Amino acid sequence: MSAFKDIFEGSDAYTAAFSHGGLSALPQARLVIVTCMDTRINPLAIFGLDIGEAHVLRNAGARITPDVIRSLIKSINQLEVERIVVMHHTDCGAAKIKLDGLRAAVTAATGNDPADVDFHLIAEPVTALTEDIELVRTCPYLPVGTAVAGLVYDVHTGEVRVEHETFVS
Ligand SMILES: [Zn+2]
């Protein structure tokens, strides 16, 4: 019995009803959304978007890591995207978890201390979003003038709050 039986069945049903074979790989809204992996966030639905309209880059905390920068560079320079949204959210695990506890949990489960892993935890949410926007705004591999927004999604109300609107410069 596969550990993935449920999702394979879901895939079969999706394939049976599939109707998106004609989509372009270029995001039609010319938008990339960086957000958290939190299950309560549906990045396309939040903005009234559908499949084919935006790139979505996700990690724990919606942090601007080197790998997110790598994908942003491709999105903007190769795939015709012109707008970058960085969307943090309320009640984020990356802001609630403490590094000591996380390292202890990993060590207890695996026998190995992840001392060499940068978890990009959030000490202070307002500061963290500002830092992430600054990393994007000042990235030398993104064209000057690319629009950048820093948003916070409220997981209890579905509302998006605009904290930053700026341009790569
Ligand atoms: Zn989160």
From TrEMBL:
GO terms for molecular function: carbonate dehydratase activity; zinc ion binding. SMART domains: Pro_CA (SM00947). Keywords: Metal-binding, Zinc. CDD domains: beta_CA_cladeD. Pfam families: Pro_CA. The keyword Metal-binding applies. Its cofactor is Zn(2+). Belongs to the beta-class carbonic anhydrase family. PANTHER family: CARBON DISULFIDE HYDROLASE, CARBONIC ANHYDRASE. This is Unannotated protein. It comes from freshwater metagenome.
